[in-house]
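Milestone 3.1: sequence recovery, worked example.
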C-alpha cells in the first residue's frame, strides 16, 4: 500500500520533470518526421528554417498558427499538415525540446571533414 502511495506521488514528478518533457519532445521530433525537413540537429535544411535554440514561446506561437491552418506563404502549405494533428501538449514538448536541444559536439568536426568532398552544395 505504501509503495502504491509513493508511486502515485512520483507520477506527476516523472511526467512533468523537464528532462521528461525534453525526451518526449525529442521522440516527437524524430517520430513525427520533423527531422526530414528541419534536420537531425534542427538547424534547418535548404529552405527549411532552423528551429534549434529558438525561444519556446515563439516556436509555440508559430506551431499553433500552422495548426489552425493560417498560411503566411507558399512555404506554410508544406508545414501546415505536420502541425495539424499535434496536441497542445505535443506542441509544448516539441518547443521545449527545440529551445533546449543539445547539439552534437562532434558535428562541427564532421562538417569540416565532410565539406571538401561534398557536391558543392548543388
Ligand atoms: C515536409 C517538410 C516539413 C516537415 C516534415 C516539417 N516542417 Fe516545419 N516547416 C517547414 C517549412 C517549409 C516551414 C516554413 C513555413 C513558412 O515559412 O511559413 C516550416 C516552419 C516551421 C516552424 C516555424 C519556423 C519559422 O521560422 O517560422 C516550426 C516551429 C516548425 N516548422 C516545426 C516543425 C515541427 C515541430 C515538425 C514536426 C512535427 C515540422 N516542422 C515538420 C517544413 C516542414
Amino acid at each position: 500500500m505504501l509503495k502504491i502511495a509513493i508511486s502515485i506521488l512520483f507520477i506527476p514528478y516523472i511526467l512533468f520533470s523537464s528532462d521528461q518533457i525534453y525526451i518526449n519532445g525529442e521522440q516527437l521530433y524524430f517520430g513525427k518526421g520533423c527531422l526530414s525537413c528541419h534536420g537531425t540537429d534542427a538547424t534547418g535544411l535548404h529552405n527549411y528554417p532552423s528551429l534549434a535554440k529558438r525561444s519556446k514561446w515563439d516556436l509555440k506561437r508559430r506551431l499553433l498558427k500552422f495548426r489552425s491552418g493560417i498560411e503566411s506563404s507558399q512555404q506554410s502549405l508544406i508545414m501546415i499538415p505536420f502541425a495539424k494533428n499535434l496536441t497542445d501538449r505535443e506542441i509544448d514538448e516539441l518547443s521545449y525540446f527545440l529551445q533546449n536541444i543539445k547539439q552534437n559536439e562532434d558535428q562541427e568536426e564532421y562538417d569540416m571533414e565532410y565539406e571538401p568532398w561534398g557536391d558543392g552544395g548543388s
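The pocket of heme C is lined by residues 32-34, 36-38, 48-49, 51, 59, 62-63, 72-73, 75-76, 78-79, 82, 94 (CB under 6 Å). Residues 60 and 91 are 6 Å apart (CA to CA).
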